[in-house]
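Recall the central idea of this unit: under ordinary conditions, the amino acid sequence of a chain determines the structure it adopts. In this exercise we apply that idea directly, starting from the sequence alone.
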Amino acid sequence: QLQLVESGGGLVQPGGSLRLSCVASGTISRIYAMGWYRQAPGKQRELVATFTGDRTNYADSVKGRFTISRDNSKNTVYLLYLQMNSLKPEDTAVYFCNYRGVYWGQGTQVTVSS
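Accordingly, the structure predicted from this sequence is:
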């Protein structure tokens, strides 16, 4: 049974930084996309950053500010990170970890406010 669990969200001032983590347990293949999405109140869920194989893809709105990374050195879990710098109020959303476009974590709230 594949599970995704996010952590690291919180309240941060504009210009601040946060690092989100996703722990994926179960069988993960690097040939499939894995990454981060977000959903702000009243808006559709949108892609933030993903890995497909060794390729990364970022939403234009986060390029140069967010960095996706991973650690799959341990056989039992797969770790996915999202380093978020220079945060803006419009980055406020629930951030979700996703695998293959099918599996979702429960989400972690990020609020950027002074």
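The mean pLDDT is 94.
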